[in-house]
Amino acid sequence: MDKLTLTQPDDWHLHVRNGEILKTVIAHTARQFARAIIMPNLKPAVTTVDEALTYRSEICQALPSGSNFNPLMTLYLTPDTSVAEVKKAALAEHIHAFKLYPAGATTNSESGVNDLKTIYPILEAMEQEDIPLLIHGEVTDDACDIFDREKVFIESSLASIVKTFPDLRVVVEHVTTQEAVDFVFSASNKVAATITPQHLMFNRNALLAGGIRPHYYCLPIIKREHHRLALVKAATSGNPKFFLGTDSAPHLTGSKENSCGCAGCYSAYGALELYAEVFENEDALDKLEGFASFYGPDFYQLPRNSNTVTLQKQAWTVPASYPVDQGSITPLMANEILSWKILD
Ligand code: DOR
Ligand code: ZN
User: Fold this and answer.
1) Positions marked active-site
2) Ligand 1 pocket test: which of 42, 107, 202 has the largest number of ligand atoms within 8 Å of its C-beta?
3) What are the pLDDT digits (tens) for 42-89?
C-alpha cells in the first residue's frame, strides 16, 4: 500500500501557546487536522469562558488565510473554579472540556489543584452538565519517583474520581503506562485516553542512553519498553477508548537544550505522519482511521469530519528546526527520515 486516504483527523490534545510562536505552530496543525482540543495552560491560565473565547479569536486570527480549522477550547480548573462557570461553559458552543492539572505536575500548572477532594463539587457539576474532564494524571509528590507518578495517581486519585462520578466523561490524557491502559480498558465507556506519538515510538532509552536528549523529554516522562508496547497495543486495537492526542508542546530550542530544560515534544509539524509510522510497523494501518478520525469525535459527541486527507508512502527528512520569532523550535525526530507524507 503506498497511498492511504482517511477521513480528516482531529488532535484531541494540543498546545499552541500564544503570541508570535502561535502562527507557526497552528499552521502545522491546520495542515492536517480539522479540529484540536486546545490546552489552557498559558500564563496566565485560561480559566473562564470569556478568556477562552478571547484566546480562540487569537488562534483563529493566526491561521493561514482560507483555513477552516476549528479550535475546540478548554478551561483550566483551579481551586477557584465555580459551579456557575461550569454551567456557562457547558452552554458555550466553543468550550468542550475542563482540564485538571495537579498543581506543580508540569509546565504552567502552578494554578492547578492541590487537593482534588476540594473540587469534587465542581466535578459533580461537570457530571450533571455532561462536560468532559481532561486529566493530567500524575501525582506531584516530590518523594514519588518520576517514573511512578502516573501509576500512583491512578491508584490514589483517578480510581476515586471515576468511582464517585460514574457519569462524568473523563479523558486520561497522554497515557504512558501499562497500568493506565489497563485502567482505561476496564473502566466504563465514559472513560477514554489519548496517546501521543512520542509515547508510542520511544522508550526511556531514547531520552537517556548515549547522552541526554532533551527533545524527548516531556511529561509524563517516557517509560520502559513494556509500557510502550502496551500503548501500541491499545492504540492499534481498534478499541474506541483510545484516540489521537499529540500533546505537541512547542518550546524554544534554547529552553529545552538547557541545564533545566522544559518538558514538551514538538510533533505538530508531522503528527499524522508519525502515527502512520507506528501503525505501519504494527501492520495496523487499517486501524489508523478509527484512532485518528472517529473515536475522538464520538467521545466528544461531535460529528466526524466529512472531508479526507491522503498520506503517500514517500520518504522525507524532518527539518533540523523550524524558525520562529525569538529563535527556533526543534521538532521531535529532527533530521530523521519519515516514510509517510501528507499530500497537500
Ligand atoms: O511535556 C509536557 N509539556 N507535558 C505537559 O503536560 C505540558 C506540556 C507543555 O505545556 O509544555
Ligand atoms: Zn499537554
Assistant:
1) 247
2) 107
3) 999 999 999 999 999 999 999 999 999 999 999 999 999 999 999 999
